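Hi, here's the filled form for the chain we discussed.

Project: internal
Contact: R.S.
Residues: 91
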Amino acid sequence: MPKPSDTAMRMRYWAWMLSSKMSGVSPAKVGQGAITLTGNSRARRTLIESAWSYRFRARKTMHLKRKAADASEEAKVIAWTAQKRLCGRYY
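And the returned structure, exactly as it came back:
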């Protein structure tokens, strides 16, 4: 796996694990296939877990409120900003 600092290289690494279905030459008919068994199993698992985790909008659940009870206000603001940014990117 490439260095974590090289995001473009990491995305290329994960992209070759995905298959695509092409019908003819029209780009409008290109579809996504299932994830292949190619590559690192940990990378595949991370890709699938992240896709499932960020299916919904960011929200403050009771579980998150309990976890953040002992944190400082500054840490809570930073964490919530990051969570909104991450969920907004994939939602």
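Let me know if anything looks off before we file it.
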